[in-house]
Write a structure and sequence with these properties.
The chain has 2 domains: 5-178 and 296-421, FAD/NAD(P)-binding domain (3-Layer(bba) Sandwich); 188-288. Helix 1 (18-29) packs parallel to helix 4 (102-116). By secondary structure, it is α/β, with parallel strands linked by helices. The strands form 7 sheets. Strands 7-3-2-11-22 form a 5-stranded parallel sheet. The chain has a 4-stranded mixed sheet with strand order 1-10-9-8. The protein has 12 helices and 22 strands. The protein has helices spanning 18-29, 46-49, 70-81, 102-116, 163-167, 195-198, 203-216, 252-276, 308-312, 374-380, 383-400, 412-421, and strands spanning 5-8, 11-14, 34-37, 53-54, 85-88, 97-100, 119-121, 125-132, 135-143, 146-151, 154-157, 172-174, 188-191, 227-230, 237-240, 284-288, 298-300, 320-324, 328-330, 338-340, 348-351, 363-365. It is globular, with a radius of gyration of 21 Å. The longest helix is centred in the middle third of the chain and has 25 residues, at 252-276.
């Protein structure tokens, strides 16, 4: 069956989460005709429909050193102009957080992308790809108007689930094949909270009260921890508490079950907070996350695979394009979260090779579908790093155009020089 040509661009980015947005902005600013494809009606992905805090900008510990700059930090500064960002010390192990108002971030993403010259195509879903040898030539997309093709010279897979690479036949590992995949979380926000009283409850006290609630038999709280934090809005707190385990989030049947279970759990945590925690007595539910938060699905096999040893030894690479100091944060199926830290003050590099999927010539990945093992992924998936990867991928995609779109032909020294000129932070030393 023949399908019409919907559109064409030099660089096409699939997925407008924080990685895809920064990738598209970087590619467009570098002069490439760039089209950003997104299945929802807004930009931001997890950053605007699940979470309200960027982690990964700062290393953990008392030395709140910032390790991500460039376009990601520009987004933070734009949020600051709206008065909708606060930086708060983390009580939960991942380092200082940058907390924002998600609807405001939707506007910031859109306006920053449009100002850069990015063309947007929302409400569009990729269902297949076309190939010639090792090159992807087009995406078959679906929308209300039907099916059609979008062609490009270079593609960036920022879908989170490696949808483009999967359909192009690139090798990948599905989370859960080598041990349980990271669990999923439905987040929620509460209003009319007495913040002065509520935020005096320490983490240890919250854990103790959750355990007591479970032992009473009156509640079912699968995760006996989680975070509750203040937001830029008075009387509003955001949570990260629920836990839905053993889910293949690439299977719509399993994901449907997870969505329903996540909201059911969220209501139980709301009841617990109202009945057991000071300051929440008169709180009301504002909203659930637009969809359940997915931490891990497909991880491509790239020209390099980031490992647990790379993370914990703070390894540096000659082809570095970003850096990370975040701990390994494993949301396993149990009631707690496992943390493993780098040496104090240390960071490791994210190599450009981990963004290049094997067997494909003109495709890059950015975000949580990068080439990494389960443990390394549990560190590098922070949104600060996803955005930094996006900036690198978008810049590299534009630089690949004079090389017939072959991403491996991009001179790494030239790429690093451009990224640094644009404010990116990384070491790049062997």
């Amino acid at each position: 069956m023949q399908f019409p040509l919907f559109d064409s661009a030099e660089v096409v980015v699939l997925g407008a989460g924080c990685a895809g947005c920064t990738a598209a902005i970087a590619a467009a600013r570098a002069g490439a005709d760039t089209l950003l494809i997104e299945r929802y009606g807004f930009l931001g992905g997890t950053s605007t429909m699940v979470l309200d805090s960027f982690y990964g900008f700062y290393i953990p510990g008392n030395d709140a050193r910032r390790v991500v700059g460039g376009i990601p930090w520009e987004i933070v500064e734009r949020l600051r102009r709206y008065g909708m960002v606060i930086e708060r010390p983390s009580s939960y192990g991942a380092g200082q957080a940058v907390t924002y108002d998600p609807p405001t971030l939707q506007v910031v993403w859109e306006q920053t992308a449009l100002e850069a010259g990015v063309r947007l195509r929302l409400h569009t879903f990729c269902v297949d790809v076309s190939k010639e040898g090792d090159r992807v030539t087009g995406l078959l997309v679906a929308g209300k108007s039907g099916l059609g093709w979008i062609t490009a010279r270079v593609f960036i897979d920022a879908s989170g689930d490696a949808d483009l690479c999967f359909r192009a036949g690139a090798p990948f590992q599905l989370a859960g094949e080598d041990g349980p995949a990271q669990s999923l979380t439905t987040t929620f926000r509460l209003g009319n909270v007495d913040e002065e009283r509520a935020l005096k409850v320490k983490r240890a006290d919250l854990v103790r009260l959750m355990k007591e609630a479970n032992l009473s038999g009156e509640y079912r709280l699968p995760r006996e921890e989680g975070s509750v934090h203040r937001t830029p809005l008075h009387g509003v707190v955001a949570t990260n508490m629920t836990r839905v385990a053993y889910v293949d989030a690439t299977d719509p049947v399993e994901l449907t079950r997870a969505e329903v279970e996540g909201r059911k759990q969220a209501m139980e945590y709301v009841r617990f907070l109202r009945e057991r925690i000071p300051g929440y007595e008169n709180a009301y539910l504002i909203n659930f996350s637009t969809q359940i938060g997915v931490r891990e699905t497909r991880r491509v096999y790239g020209d390099y695979r980031l490992t647990r040893e790379d993370v914990l030894s703070a390894r540096h690479f000659p082809d570095a394009i970003a850096q990370c100091g975040a701990p390994i944060e494993d949301h396993h199926p149990g009631s707690d979260t496992r943390w493993e830290y780098l040496p104090p003050g240390a960071t490791y590099d994210i190599p450009f090779r981990s963004l290049i999927p094997q067997t494909l010539a003109n495709v890059l990945v950015a975000g949580r579908c990068l080439s990494a093992t389960h443990d390394a992924h549990a560190s590098v998936r922070s949104m600060g790093q996803c955005m930094a990867m996006g900036q690198a991928a978008g810049t590299a995609a534009a630089m690949a155009l004079p090389h017939n779109g072959v991403v491996r032909s991009v001179p790494i020294a030239q790429l690093q020089q451009q990224l640094r000129a644009d404010g990116a932070l990384f070491s790049g030393a062997e």
